Amino acid sequence: MRAFTQHQGVVAPMDRSNVDTDMIIPKQFLKSIKRTGFGPNLFDELRYLDEGKPDQDCAKRPINPDFVLNQDRYKNASVLLARRNFGCGSSREHAPWALEDFGFRVIIAPSFADIFYNNCFKNGLLPIVLPEEVVGQLFQEVEQSEGYQLSVDLEARTVTTPSGETFSFEVDDFRRHCLLNGLDDIGVTLEDADAIKSYEDSRRKTAPWLFGAGS
Q1: N or C end of the chain: which has fewer CB within 10 A?
Q2: Residue 176 near residue 26, CB atoms below 8 Å
Q3: How many other β-carbons are positioned within 10 Å of the β-carbon of residue 12?
Q4: Which residues, in sequence order, are CB contacts of 206 under 8 Å at separation 6+?
Q5: What separation in angstroms does the CA of 175 have from each of 7, 117, 178?
Q6: Rounded to the nearest 5 degrees, what angle is found at the Cα of 192, between the Cα atoms of 190 and 193?
Q7: Mean pLDDT across 25-40
């Protein structure tokens, strides 16, 4: 998993509440347990004018010119600005996979669905909760200024606008440690690899039958 310390990127505004995981990545595309390859089908039903099929070449599909991610000013966005309850619905981990594969590194919203919020940290995405009035201000600034970028500092727990205005956000210390060091659940476990090996060595001596040896 990619570590996250600081990031600066173009902001894309997704001005709707209750964006669920089926909207983020529709169920017909969940045919792989790999974490990559889902980006072309991110927000599929909103991005394209036809009905997408698995393994279809998305480069040849008709795009919806009204969808925010199809607009030239947002095509290189890596920060997604959203409304309340982003990531609700099912628990599919493919949702953060698709967002990360598309190129997003940060999602800012007034609130997130719990499972989606936790899955983001396990996949190198930083979900940031900011007050609703602050998110509303950011929506206005993004729409008024083409190329609008935000700077995010996970160590300092801050979001900084182009004018220098800074907003603080909260993040659990454990999740922050994992993201700063690029650790998913397996990576966290491997931090204690020496202790695990030492314990196994001691148990192999005191209870050899657990390891296939005769008593």
Answers
A1: C
A2: no
A3: 21
A4: none
A5: 17, 11, 5
A6: 60
A7: 86
Alpha-carbon gap, residue 196 to 110, rounded angstroms: 40
Q: What is the pLDDT of residue 68?
A: 96
DSSP alpha helix (H) spans, the chain: 21-24, 44-47, 94-102, 114-121, 132-144, 173-180, 185-190, 193-206
Tokens representing 204 are 């192999």
pLDDT in tens, 119-129: 999 999 999 99
The average confidence (pLDDT) of the chain is: 93
Is residue 134 predicted with pLDDT exceeding 70? yes
CA distances from 160 to 8, 57, 134, 153 (A): 9, 38, 12, 8
The pTM is what? 0.88
Q: From CA 185, how far away is CA 171, in angstroms rounded? A: 18
Q: In the beta sheet, which residues pair with residue 81?
A: 13, 108
Is 147 in a helix, a strand, or coil?
A: coil
Please give the distance of CA 8 from its chain centroid, rounded to a whole number.
15
